[in-house]
Amino acid sequence: MDAPAPLSSSGEDAARGAERRLMAEAAAGGQAALAQVYDLTSAQVFGLILGVVRDRTAAEEALQETYLHAWRYAADFDASRDTVAVWLCGIAHRYAVARTLSHFAGLTPYEIAARTAQTVAAVRSHTRAGLSGLHDHSQRSRSEPSDTRAPEPA
């Protein structure tokens, strides 16, 4: 199967022109244009947010905040600097990080340190268990005879 050909310069220019048009329409109040931008970009943007916040409900809320921001500030989009997906991912990342940091709001430094220590201890425990399993597997494979024959040709 042949790989798809990369976009030519004229194809990239056409894509940028379409993005510029959609965002200009959104800035002028065009809901259909923003809906089209959402359809084109929301899966990528949601994936980025979910990778940061690790909670589906929080990710959905951050996604909504991202597109509300895009709606309010559509006129700020500059197609000469970024694609619309890159612009939205930058906005989404800021909302995702802010949402993640809000989990620590209202906690004392001691409480934050205690939660961090608990997380580190849990990760350390899981890592040691995994490494122990690897060590056991390595010891078993050393004591078992290995098959040194060359593989059969296909």
Order of helices and strands: HHHHH
Residue stretches low in confidence (pLDDT < 50, at least 5 long) are none
Helix content: over 70%
Number of helices: 5
Overall form:
elongated
Q: Can you count the beta strands? A: 0
The proportion of residues in beta strands is under 5%
Span of the ends, CA to CA: 22 Å
- Average of per-residue pLDDT values: 82
Biggest β-sheet: count, sense, barrel?
none
Helix vs. strand class: mainly alpha
Give the C-alpha Rg: 25 Å
Tell me what you see in this structure.
The protein has helices spanning 9-27, 31-53, 56-72, 84-102, 109-143. By secondary structure, it is mostly helical. The chain is built from five helices and no strands. Helix 2 (31-53) runs antiparallel to helix 3, helix 2 (31-53) packs across helix 4 and helix 3 crosses helix 4. The mean pLDDT is 82. The radius of gyration is 25 Å and the shape is elongated. The longest helix is centred in the last third of the chain and has 35 residues, at 109-143.
Please outline the helices and strands.
Layout: H1 9-27, H2 31-53, H3 56-72, H4 84-102, H5 109-143
